[in-house]
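REQUEST FORM: STRUCTURE PREDICTION
Request ID: SP-0412
Submitted by: Lab K.M.
Chain count: 1
Length (residues): 296
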Amino acid sequence: MSRKRDGSRLSFVRLAAAAAIAMAAGGPALAQQAQPAPNPQERIKLVVNEGAAGNADFAEILFRYEEFGQMAGKALGGPVIIISARNRDRLRENLRNNAYELLLSRPNDVPAQAVRDFGYVSVASAKEPYRTLFIVPNDSPLRTIADVKGRTIVTPDQYSNMWRAAKAMLRDNNIDMLNENVRSMRDQAAIGWSVENKMFDVGVVNSASGVARTWEKKGGRVIAASRDQINMPFIASPGLSAARIAKLRAAVLALESTDSGRAILKKINLPAGFRETSREEFLAFLKWLGEETKPL
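STATUS: Completed
RESULT:
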């Protein structure tokens, strides 16, 4: 009988010790054993980068891309969390380390590098391309990009994708931008205002920007437009299987075919939808940009 009581006492002590350990590890763990908490590592991270000129805060990004993220999660079979990224260098390092499963980015050179160098796979890109534009006031004597030589130029941030596109455009016209009088501004609205008020002779803006959409309507002129560029590339990590990426691509390309899909596209400001974009297109784009000034 004594041995039985000792055994019961030992069992009770062991049970009490186990309960204490469980509570120390995080509270009512024993009660939740039948429904374990989801592993945060299983969540699919969708990073959105609207560029340096994008002024939306995280709450706005979350609201704008919420349904797009839900669509991606349904196609991939897992919960998607949305992350807003603005810092170009940090974004590139995280892509190098395959820290993100998905990236949707307006600046196109960083995702292009991720496809070329870090194993990322192209899912799609916006159907409507964008161009880099050289703008001047209506009364400017400048008529073509050749006239830019020796003039004052204002561009987006140095080494940004648009700065590099402007440099490539000038290079194609035998002008070395590094030898020109160039200043940089982060905000494209400020670039437009500066050119309109004759602080600079010529400005560089994105055709998708508010400045570009209204510049000619307000009487300004565009003296040069770049080749069509990849717009809003959507890429996926090599950590996702080819089968899952194929399902995601099909879902993205099908958005324009339904009312709900078209509502998602309108909300993220891509009403024309997406198109397939090959790896070779990214490589050709990077080759045109040139990387002799500063590696990506």
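NOTES: The chain has a mean pLDDT of 86.
Reviewed by: T.R.
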